[in-house]
From TrEMBL:
Gene3D superfamilies the record matches: Winged helix-like DNA-binding domain superfamily/Winged helix DNA-binding domain (1.10.10.10)
Family: Belongs to the RecX family.
Primary location group: cytoplasm
InterPro entries: RecX_HTH_1st (IPR053926), Regulatory_RecX (IPR003783), WH-like_DNA-bd_sf (IPR036388)
Protein encoded by which gene: recX
GO biological process: regulation of DNA repair
Biological role: Modulates RecA activity.
A matching Pfam family: RecX_HTH1
Organism phylogeny: Bacteria, Pseudomonadati, Aquificota, Aquificia, Aquificales
Name under which the protein is recorded: Regulatory protein RecX
């Protein structure tokens, strides 16, 4: 177990990992399931891994980069995180941010709708974001 714990701490010293992501890494390295479980419990007890905090931080960073909630959900799903919810306001803010800083074409409704739809935003968010963007309410 000490080798597994040492390896996990070395991984966590470089960046934060979700619990499932860390579990996969340890399994790939060849550690026993029992040792991995003990290491994960130790890390949780010491508050070295916290999926909830990391999830919020991950969502916030990617929304600020203009990534759509669909993109973020897919990325998180691949990392082993399920049950990811976005509020309507978070999605709308991400869409407006993306329009403000990344949309380089002439401002017309159809181009804006295509731009946001291709990035995975929901239609209700696209409508509101496009209207706000065109009316200058960013």
């Amino acid at each position: 177990m000490e080798k597994a714990k040492s390896y996990a701490l070395r991984l966590l010293s470089k960046r934060d990992y979700f619990e499932e992501e860390l579990r996969r890494k340890l399994l790939q390295k060849g550690f026993q399931e029992e040792d991995i479980h003990q290491v994960i419990e130790y890390l949780k007890k010491e508050n070295l891994i916290n999926d909830d905090k990391l999830l919020e931080r991950y969502k916030e960073i990617n929304l600020q980069k203009g990534k759509s909630p669909l993109y973020i959900k897919n990325k998180l799903y691949r990392k082993g995180v399920k049950n990811i919810d976005f509020s309507y306001e978070e999605e709308l803010d991400a869409a407006l941010y993306l329009l403000k800083f990344k949309f380089r074409r002439e401002k017309n409704y159809t181009d804006i709708v295509k731009f946001l739809r291709n990035r995975g935003f929901s239609y209700t968010v696209i409508q509101e974001a496009a209207n706000k963007f065109l009316n200058g309410e960013e």
